[in-house]
Amino acid sequence: MEFSSRARQRHLRLTGDRREPYPHSLQFYQEPPTENISLVEFESFAVDRLRLLKVVENLGVSYVKSGDAYKTKLEAELRKLKFPYRALAEDDYDARRKDHISHFILRLAYCQSEELRRWFLQQEMDLFRYRFHELTEGLRQKFLDHVNLSFEAISEDLKNELANELYMSTPGLTMAKVKEQMFYKVGLSDAVDLFRARRVFIKDGFAFVPLKDIDAIVLNNYRKSLSKALAEEWETASSLK
Questions:
Q1: Domain boundaries in the chain?
Q2: Are residues 167 and 201 in contact, defined by beta-carbon separation less than 8 angstroms?
């Protein structure tokens, strides 16, 4: 991440299409930013994301995270601070850029201790969960492809064919809910926890996971990715001291 004057930053935006570095707003933050950024932006991005994560923390204590009140409050904060809140549905380059860069700024700051890493990881997980839940069926599949999670939504015909097996193997779902719920075909290695708990239907080496559980698998992948990145950045920072 480099620094530049406001004039140079504005010139860079006007001399070409700058959307390519941020093709999606929802991501696992695996590629750090490489563009120039002014000191003014650096500070404002860091402050705004920290303010947002503090809101996420407070809302998580005051509201049920899956409730409508929580979603309404969090959406209002995302909109006010100009972060994407409808994830891949938004075509707002500046919001995507801010989301991406601000995440990495705070990641550098919050990798310094186990307590800070734990706090940052929890708030980013809650923020990611909300944004993932906001995706439509098509955008959810687009996101899974983007982060190389080969979870394919099964067809309605196949779901109807397997309806009895899905109902018998998926606790908490009535037959009516099975009919309504989207199911994904997932490799056993990604659904091992569901398999061990006997909470998923297995066929031909694949688990057929309902939408209500697919988010847990995606979140687990995100947690592993972010936790590893925080540890690596702390090791790098320590070696430079």
A1: 2-137, 152-215
A2: no
